[in-house]
Design goal:
The chain is of the alpha/beta class and 322 residues long. It is 48% helix and 18% strand. The chain has helices spanning 2-18, 39-54, 72-80, 112-120, 122-135, 173-181, 194-200, 210-215, 241-245, 249-283, 293-307, 310-321; strands at 26-31, 59-64, 86-89, 137-139, 143-144, 148-152, 166-169, 185-188, 205-209, 224-231, 234-240, 287-289. α2 runs antiparallel to α10 and α6 (173-181) packs across α11. The longest helix is centred in the C-terminal third of the chain and has 35 residues, at 249-283. The protein is globular, with a radius of gyration of 22 Å. The relative contact order is 0.16. It binds D-mannonic acid (CS2). D-mannonic acid binds at residues 33, 72, 89-92, 104, 170, 172, 191, 208, 212, 235.
Length: 322
């Protein structure tokens, strides 16, 4: 048996050395919060494929799902420290610059028409500029998301039903403001900790789009999807600006174009998934609950507005008027 092992090793060594596969010149390590089944993971895998091909093997993308490599906030810091290179993020960036709040502010946008208007308008432009300047990240496009809904183990139809409910929220200031105003007890927590915390009962509820609820297997630990639809949002696939600037200009061009192609690819997968995801959640035993959306909006809108700086309040008013 020993001889066999030695043979295998020398075989591996031999094939390894004679393989003419080039070592990549540029390696981009990507930390994702979702697992391999989510459209963001699939989109980054596609991005890696087309980049490797179009750069003739000079660029390689490595993806680490399920926050294995880093949780969202850590991922941002590690990219800034030039330890890793890419991730997905959005309103969490409010911790670096305030205007990021508008890509995921509760009860701001109504639908994807509003969303696209923001992304492509002055506010989207400002966001991308601030992102480079204040957080050292470059947006490669955007991923549209479905509306966020509240999941729980008791039905929630009205804000009055929320009393004392411990709900996990991402590390996003406006989410804490909104859920506190609604009467719940919001607890900021990294995404990868949510499943176990729900299972162990340290939190009782969480909120996310259908795709994410399904992807993370929350049906196993949550009975109800309360159709709050309180947030319409998007996230950005991002790369560290330093890391991007290290690429020669021909590769920069390839990189940015591949980013746009990744966005289109993800969008197709997103639309496809949206068609079946609600049925999937029902099959897994989740019950869908209609809620008094107006009551939710009315109870927290003022608190959200008041929590913004005067400058952001001005933008908020403009966006609402458009
Ligand atoms: C996710 C995040 O953690 C979560 O629940 O849905 O993508 C969240 O929206 C963000 O933290 C955005 O930056």
């Amino acid at each position: 048996i020993f001889g066999h092992i030695v043979f295998c090793f020398s075989f591996l060594w031999f094939t390894g050395c004679t393989s003419d596969k080039k070592e990549p010149e540029f390696l981009f390590r990507t930390a994702l919060l979702v697992n391999e089944d989510h459209t963001w993971f699939k989109a980054f895998a596609y991005f890696g494929e087309i980049l490797e091909e179009r750069s003739d093997g000079r660029i390689k993308v490595e993806i680490y799902p399920s926050e294995q490599l880093a949780k969202e906030i850590e991922a941002i810091r590690l990219i800034q420290a030039d330890v890793i290179d890419m991730t997905t993020t959005g309103s969490t960036l409010t911790n670096w610059f305030e205007v990021a709040t508008f890509c995921e502010l509760p009860f701001l946008m109504q639908d994807s028409t509003d969303m696209n208007r923001y992304i492509n308008g002055p506010i989207g432009k400002l966001m991308e500029e601030e992102m480079i300047e204040k957080s050292g990240l470059r947006a490669l496009g955007h991923f549209e998301r479905g509306a966020r809904h509240l999941t729980s183990n008791r039905p929630i139809r009205h804000p009055d039903d929320l009393k004392g409910l411990i709900i996990r929220v991402p590390n996003v200031p406006s989410f804490v403001t909104a859920w506190s105003a609604l009467g719940a007890k919001p607890t900021p927590m990294a995404f990868s900790e949510v499943f176990t915390s729900l299972q162990q009962g340290t939190i009782q509820a969480q909120e996310n789009p259908f795709a994410m609820i399904n992807n993370a297997g929350f049906a196993e630990v949550q009975k109800y999807v309360n159709l709050t639809g309180h947030v319409i949002s998007w996230v950005y696939p991002v790369v560290g600006e330093k890391q991007f600037q290290r690429l020669p200009s021909d590769l920069q061009e390839i990189f940015l174009l591949a980013g746009k192609d990744m966005q289109d690819y993800e969008h197709r997968l997103f639309l496809e998934n949206e068609k079946s995801v609600q049925e999937e959640l029902k099959t897994k035993g989740m019950k869908f609950i209609k809620v008094d959306k107006k009551a939710f909006e009315e109870k927290c809108s003022n608190a959200i507005y008041e929590s913004l700086s005067p400058e952001m309040q001005k933008i908020y008013r403009q966006l609402k008027q458009e």
